[in-house]
Amino acid sequence: MAKVTMFTAARTLQGEEVRAQLTGEMAELYHDLDMGFQPVNFVAPWLPLPANRRRDVAQKRLRGLYLGIIEARRARELEKGKLGQAGDGEDEEPDMLWTLMRSVYKDGAPMEDGDTASLMVALLLGGQHSSSAAGTWMLLELTARVELQEELFEEQRRLGGEEGGGFRPLELADVDKMPLMMGAVKETLRVHSSINSIMRRVKNPIPVPGTGYVIPPGRTMLASTSVMHMSEEYYARPEVWDPKRWEGKVEEDREEDMVDYGYGTVNKGTRSPYLPFGAGRHRCIGESFAYLNLCTIMATLVREFRFLPTNEKWVVPPTDYSSMFAMATRPAIVKWERR
Ligand code: HEM
């Protein structure tokens, strides 16, 4: 799953050139980066722990990959006599890397290649780890419910089934036409929020209502979205993974909740008890892409395969909380057969 989500995010968000250079080994390097998100690292990220050493090696390798691509692009532009010209790279497929390569800092100085490469690593990490964890959890929950896989398969047949048994390729608009699949993605993000702790540094004193306490500036506050996701106040039988609880539920955007932080109008999301993508100023920028990516990947898998427990004692594995991303404990193994 890590490979699938990384390759799709790389191709769609970062372009063909980046995708061509990513191998399965790179997915393992991203896993090493994930494992560097230990809670202790928010206090002392420099600790000489084995996980931190692996994290730093992975960061260097991935950064090197992007630096290599930047260098190759510069060489191509030099050959065309366009390096540093206003239109450099404009005859190539536009992507995030070209955009960053042409960006300038606030003082007008060109962005440094090392910073560009590090940002590209971070962006792919942002798009990859949480989707990979969510896809894995969904596959595991579906393995425990083979009959639901058949319902999802039927939904796909109604949506794009062709005579003779095949399917037409998925299109962008199809995502809105697979409510059960969307419910399964939403439910997975509720029960298995990959980012379940959100932290903020206090900038101004915060009085705690109804008490004499004031939280002073400089402290770090942590909110766990999973507490709300597992609350009976908001969800009936919250511990049960049930995609059908989302049937017919549409969350309307209220005007007073809409805000523009400088990249288009978004819902602050602070009123909702459903917060897998966070809320407020730092709410996830990749939410729509994540739904699109996960629905497409899972629809493709359901169309082609059936997932089965490996033996009678098989259960959905417990959560591995050793990093800040709540992933399934490895090895999480399922059996598959082609339809
Ligand atoms: C299932 C998939 C995903 C989940 C569950 C998820 C979750 C989150 C959460 C909870 C936050 C807020 C963190 C905070 O408030 O401190 C966040 C922020 C962010 N996410 Fe995602 N995300 C997902 C996919 C993506 C994708 C696909 C991208 C890239 C296209 C992305 C890019 C980002 C970025 C750049 C931020 C930081 C925003 C900021 O600090 O202003 N995420 N994500």
Summarize this structure as a short list of keywords or feature phrases.
single chain, 339 residues, mainly alpha, Cytochrome p450, two-stranded antiparallel sheet, 10 helices, binds protoporphyrin IX containing FE
| H/E element sequence | HHHHHHHHEEEEHEEHEEEE
What is the number of beta strands? 10
Largest sheet: 2 strands, antiparallel
CATH class: Mainly Alpha
Low-pLDDT ranges: none
CATH topology: Cytochrome p450
CATH architecture: Orthogonal Bundle
Percent in helix: 40-55%
Number of helices: 10
What compounds sit in this structure? protoporphyrin IX containing FE
Radius of gyration: 22 Å
When the domains are counted, the total is 1
The CATH superfamily is: Cytochrome P450
Strands of the biggest beta sheet: in what spatial order?
1-4
Q: Characterize the overall form.
A: globular
Protein name: Cytochrome P450
Family: Belongs to the cytochrome P450 family.
Organism: Schizothecium vesticola
Cofactor: heme
